[in-house]
Here is the input.
Amino acid sequence: MPLTLTDAQTQWLIREMQANTPREICGLIGGRGNRAEQIIPLPNVATDPTTRYQADPAALARALREIEKSGDLLAIYHSHPNSAPIPSQTDIAEWMWGSVACVIVGLEAGTVCVRGWKLQISRIHKISLTAY
Here is the structure.
């Protein structure tokens, strides 16, 4: 199933990554069906936020409650400020979000772009990100 983001949402993710580089950004995308309606950035509290992301647990809990008020959790997003928006082995190994999409903002051929993925044990599937 594709995940649908507005052009403004996609551009916001790109600007957020650029503003925080070299630190990775992270957060949640909520909505209904496959349509993103809200993006909630979360503080990255990883020991080395230039190579990993870890959402602040208290902020994550608050954001999940906020999303549940008006829809569903559609995706977890983070950035790869110095590499392609492709899940790393760490991303795959540490994924704990089941069928929720993984959205990565990263560099592809020198351009910042946004890609979506479904992560499963030892397998990844690219999903389409469409605009509405």
Q: What stands out?
A: The helical segments are 7-20, 57-70, 89-94.
